[in-house]
């Protein structure tokens, strides 16, 4: 890729990083941006995005761990299934047609937009519902394969699932930050093995998303989070609708 293209990718990734830092959502926009703006094959975009989540996972886990917001016993059970599932997801990416992956990503974008529009339904107190190991293992597996196949971080999949089960919001976000790291590491190992990774793009995304996330964390204290959340929700719905329409049109004319 040319230096100008990489600079453009870095700019988009920084914006996405700001959204992640402000409201915790936004990573799902990385792969469509790479695909539609820079003609990056969707498999390569997914693999490159997963590398960036290694570093955002380290930063996020460190911050939440310092505040005691990660339930490590639960997180370790999630790790057991999330890592292998993410590796399997990388294999699935390498053999799945790009249009199917685009459709899956579009569905996840729309889901994220709808979820962001809704008022939080998490528990109002710090009581964590009884959640046995089998349920946590299933949650980890779903998060691992879903994240690896769509190029999204763990939070986008795990947080809505956890809140639906009645987890306190802080617990849900803390667990999603922790699980992001094993998912990204396992998926990246698989993507390297199956040859879908572009290191130039991956390095650009990593640096830009970390810088953007740091800025977004500061903006979160200056901009009303509810307004930012609703703005992002409509952006997600618009992007998801665009991807679905594009895929449908390609089927009609193709």
What would a concise description of this structure say?
With 254 residues, this protein is mainly alpha-helical.
Low-confidence stretches: none
User: Which percent band covers the strand fraction?
Assistant: under 5%
The helix content, as a percent range, equals over 70%
Q: How many runs of DSSP E, i.e. beta strands?
A: 0
What is the count of helical runs?
10
Please, what is the average pLDDT? 84
Kindly provide the radius of gyration, computed on alpha-carbon positions and rounded to a whole number of angstroms: 17 Å
The rough form would be described as globular
What is the makeup of the main sheet?
none
What structural class results from the helix and strand content? Answer: mainly alpha
The number of domains is 1
The end-to-end span amounts to 28 Å
What pattern of helices and strands is seen along the backbone? HHHHHHHHHH
Can you describe what's shown?
The chain has 254 residues and is mainly α. It has one domain. Helix content is 80%, strand content 0%. It is built from ten helices and no strands. It is globular, with a radius of gyration of 17 Å. The relative contact order is 0.22.
Present the secondary structure layout.
Elements: H1 3-23, H2 30-38, H3 42-66, H4 72-95, H5 98-117, H6 133-150, H7 154-164, H8 169-194, H9 199-219, H10 225-253
Helix pairs in contact: 1-2, 1-9, 2-3, 3-8, 3-9, 4-6, 4-8, 5-10, 6-7, 6-8, 7-8
Characteristics:
single chain, 254 residues, 10 helices, mainly alpha
């Amino acid at each position: 890729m040319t230096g100008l293209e990489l600079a453009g990718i870095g700019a988009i990734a920084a914006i996405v990083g700001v959204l992640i830092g402000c409201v915790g959502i936004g990573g799902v926009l990385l792969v469509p941006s790479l695909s539609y703006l820079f003609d990056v094959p969707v498999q390569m975009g997914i693999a490159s995005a997963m590398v960036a989540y290694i570093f955002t996972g380290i930063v996020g886990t460190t911050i939440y761990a310092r505040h005691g917001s990660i339930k490590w016993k639960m997180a370790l059970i999630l790790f057991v299934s999330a890592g292998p599932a993410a590796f399997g997801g990388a294999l699935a990416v390498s053999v799945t047609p790009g249009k199917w992956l685009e459709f899956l990503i579009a569905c996840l974008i729309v889901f994220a937009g709808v979820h962001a529009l809704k008022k939080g339904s998490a528990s109002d107190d710090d009581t964590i519902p009884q959640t046995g190991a089998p349920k946590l293992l299933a949650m980890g597996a779903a998060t691992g394969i879903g994240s690896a196949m769509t190029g999204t971080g763990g939070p986008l999949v795990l947080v809505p699932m956890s809140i639906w089960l009645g987890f306190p919001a802080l617990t849900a976000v803390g667990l999603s930050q922790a699980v992001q790291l094993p998912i990204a590491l396992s998926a990246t190992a698989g993507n390297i093995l199956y040859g879908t990774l572009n290191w130039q793009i991956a390095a650009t995304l990593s640096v830009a998303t970390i810088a953007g996330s740091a800025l977004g964390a500061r903006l979160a204290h200056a901009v009303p989070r509810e307004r930012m959340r609703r703005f992002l929700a409509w952006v997600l719905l618009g992007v998801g609708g665009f991807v679905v329409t594009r895929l449908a049109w390609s089927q009609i004319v193709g």
